[in-house]
User: What shape does this take?
Amino acid sequence: MFALAEVIRDEVARCDMTFRQLASKVSVAPSTLSQYVTGERPIPRETEASIIEKLNSPRMSEERCSLCRGNLFPTRYLDNIDDHPVVALNKVIGEASEFIKTANIARDALINKKQGVCLDKSVEDVVRSMEDEAADLITGAKTVLIKMQEWFGRPVIETMNRHIEKLEKSGYCSKRMVNEGR
Assistant: This one.
């Protein structure tokens, strides 16, 4: 079954809503919504976006982002973390500390390495450790954003839009690249 469909069921229950009500809010027939949720029919991107908006669901936003083309690190909503945002913040602070340590070691190991050169075993191990810490940090940071939305109604989509604007202003990406999903 499509993972987003599973999350839709959970989120409809969380919102104390019926599928008929959700179908009406997203302008689809209840039978069509049922086909989406059972995986009989793929959910069109526009309908996905509408469902996420109507349910105000950070879980669905994260699931959808995990499936986006160009998302290098698909992450999952962390169900098994204490619900309070401070717990998520403490987790990400720990992950950041570990990342900084391993990134410094990796930087030192990579100095003077040329592009395309195979890394020896010891450098490969250091780089792999740094990559693992980076992925953990990304997951932790996304979890903080989601917990802030769940607890305090902080709009994750607005945060992402501000981030994109910041990247564009700093020259790290162009509007064309963002619009093409790169």
